[in-house]
Amino acid sequence: MAEVLDVAVVGGGPTGLWLACELALAGVRVELFERRVEAVRESRALTLHPRSLEVLALRGLEGRFLERGRPLPTGHFAMLDTRLDFSVLDTRFPYTLFLPQAVTEALLEERARELGVVIRRGHTVEALRQDEAGVDLEGSADAGTFRIRARFVVGADGARSAVRRLSGIPFPGTDVTRTAMLGDVTLGAPPAQPVLGIATERGGVMVVPMAPGIHRIVVNDPLREQAPVREPVTLEELRESTLRIAGADFGMREPRWLSRFGNETRLAERYREGRVLLAGDAAHIHFPAGGQGLNVGLQDAMNLGWKLAAVVKDGAPEALLDSYSRERRPVGEALIHNTLAQTALMGATRETLALRAMLSGLLREPALNRQLANNIGALDVGYAPLEVPAPEVTLLPEWSGRRLSDVELGANTRLYAALHPGRWLLLGLGEDESRPLPRWEPGWPSQVKTLRARGSTRRGDLEGVGGLLVRPDGHVGWAWAA
Ligand SMILES: Cc1cc2nc3c(=O)[nH]c(=O)nc-3n(C[C@H](O)[C@H](O)[C@H](O)COP(=O)(O)OP(=O)(O)OC[C@H]3O[C@@H](n4cnc5c(N)ncnc54)[C@H](O)[C@@H]3O)c2cc1C
């Protein structure tokens, strides 16, 4: 058989593309296998949330995305009348970036190609076998069949993941019990509001501008919610439901894409089976409420990329891969909880409408609003301490695993800029520059960049912190006292 790859990524959606980028950045030999011959033109997702923008900024890529998207200072939970105020969040990106998934994927693919990722389109993985040293993959391609061997395989192949099924990872949860529909259409008479959300006893309608001349209409119609997910949506059906619920059809015409989607909800029992790992929709599916699936997939990939690279290239113990499951599966679980709650709130009964009104009222309380905004924006994700070698210094355990927002490190340097290479960062803080940084013992991680912040960071919560070992994904490894 030909050479053994370090990592084969299956699936070239946002999760697989970002993972391949992270692996290539670390010098891992990675190839990506994608069933589709061409990139997708339709966009399921329309949003990038604050943490995803931070993830991109941790590699210096945010500019490419920001210049193509439109920032909106609010997000939503179940389309409640009180929107979530992202503008108060502790991040450089206190907004939702409206950006169609097709553009996000094109930009991620551009980055992957720049980093030299081999992308094999038209390659469908159909068989998988693993042993102690690696994984064999087989499948079909235009030219016939293909067969490769890799030390590790990541299934980023979406909701119907073949990798998940072939590696025997159960995907428990619930089947579709109701469906909703969407249409990307031209509107002759668009609503005046930038984002329109209507919830009545007749159902719910959301209208958002997508691109010049195109709006997305999403409809939850109790009279149509038993339509099977595979039944095609017609423009007439969408128009009729919209008219009945919203009292107007907004002059909809020229559909670019009509689709029906459901509330099937499942979470992979584990994210790792030996040398096979799962990420993104392959690991978690849910009703697309609050615009989170793509975002959580990107964040899974960010967590997994450097760990897999450390095991493959830097002598890290394989147990580090278990921390991926340990850290990210609870995030998947929380995602499922919040989308189930949102689905319940999208019912059209009098009781649900009363509950919506009550929650909307509660969300006018700034502290509650902020808590939920942090949750939907994925800024509240923190991890338990990781077992990383620590020197003989007084550690501050409460810092371990925390996400760091970007911070100035003195003249012309920012924390995130120091993390662009995707390496660990040993960062000295505080005014006393004569104090040496802890001595780094050679071993894993071997690739640690050292930096001393010049002057004050002007961030109150860092007072008393002498310095930080920062993980490549921008979370704290450990911190020591000043
Ligand atoms: C109506 C709707 C609206 C949504 N809106 C949002 C939103 O606003 N915000 C948000 O964050 N998320 C949203 N989502 C969810 C989001 O689209 C997904 O979570 C996201 O696409 C997951 O990315 P992924 O890379 O994990 O999987 P996918 O995007 O599904 O990519 C998987 C890839 O694997 C390939 N593949 C599959 N099987 C194989 C195989 N055997 N061999 C090789 N390749 C294979 C597929 O062709 C595909 O390209 C929405 C979803 C829906 C349905």
TrEMBL record:
Task: Name the UniProt key words of this record, in alphabetical order.
Answer: FAD, Flavoprotein, Monooxygenase, Oxidoreductase
Please indicate which superkingdom the organism of origin belongs to.
Bacteria
Under Pfam families, the record lists:
FAD_binding_3 (PF01494), Rng_hyd_C (PF21274)
Obligatory cofactor(s): FAD
Q: Which GO terms describe its molecular function?
A: FAD binding; oxidoreductase activity, acting on paired donors, with incorporation or reduction of molecular oxygen, NAD(P)H as one donor, and incorporation of one atom of oxygen
- Kindly give the InterPro entries that the UniProt entry links to this protein: FAD-bd (IPR002938), FAD/NAD-bd_sf (IPR036188), RIFMO-like (IPR050641)
**In this protein, which residues make up the domain named FAD-binding?**
6-338
Quote the protein name from its UniProt record: Monooxygenase
